[in-house]
Design a protein that fits this description.
Elements: H1 2-5, H2 22-27, E1 36-38, E2 41-43, H3 46-56, H4 68-93, H5 102-107, H6 110-122, H7 133-148, H8 150-154, H9 159-170, H10 172-177
Helix pairs in contact: 4-7, 6-9
């Protein structure tokens, strides 16, 4: 979404994680996605790709350049998501691979949903009344979370979070990037 927002022209290649092309692994030996290749530079983390894109063009100030307090809050929320929530989300999504039940893992994530809900009680977006990098960085994980058990999620009392998610899912920015891409093959 950050690449589209920043109007970065790029060639998108879909990767089968079960059959990673050797040519892709040549650029990024750790074999994770996304990978952004710019000339000789390789960027291998989603957040770093987003920050790079926004450094190129950020007309709506997603990086909150004019407010150090908002910047700090944004960074802390993204770190909280990356360091704690994402690990718990993986256990929830793949509970059959772990020791406890889906419900037990889901219960361990509720603190983060409540954090986001509380923020959205005060603001239209996660940090302020303007969209920021935090919204775009966290949105994919809440999207994944919601679809683990959509019926349960839809019945929760996190009304502001559900509205925020729905608004992101219906945004022109999201819909313009969500289409199938050709798989990257080694013969390309």
């Amino acid at each position: 979404m950050a690449l589209a927002y920043a109007e970065i022209d790029y060639q998108h290649r879909e990767i089968s994680l079960k059959n990673k092309p050797q040519s892709m692994l040549g650029f990024s030996p750790k074999g994770t996605v996304p990978v952004l290749i710019i000339d000789e530079k390789v960027i291998e983390e989603s957040l770093d790709v987003m920050k790079w894109a926004l450094a190129q063009k950020d007309d709506d100030n997603w990086l909150l350049q004019d407010d150090e307090v908002f910047q700090m809050d944004m960074q802390q929320l993204i770190i909280l998501c990356d360091k704690q929530f994402k690990t718990q989300l993986d256990c929830y999504k793949y509970s059959d691979r772990h020791e406890f039940s889906e419900v037990e893992y889901r219960d361990q994530t509720l603190w983060f949903l409540q954090e986001l809900e509380n923020r959205l009680l005060k603001n239209k977006f996660l940090i302020s009344d303007c969209i920021s990098l935090a919204d775009i960085a966290i949105f994919p994980f809440i999207r994944q979370y919601a679809f683990v058990n959509k019926l349960w999620f839809d019945e929760t009392e996190y009304h502001n979070l559900k509205n925020w998610l729905q608004n992101n899912l219906q945004s022109g920015l999201f819909t313009c990037i969500m289409h199938k891409h050709q798989l990257w093959q080694d013969n390309e």
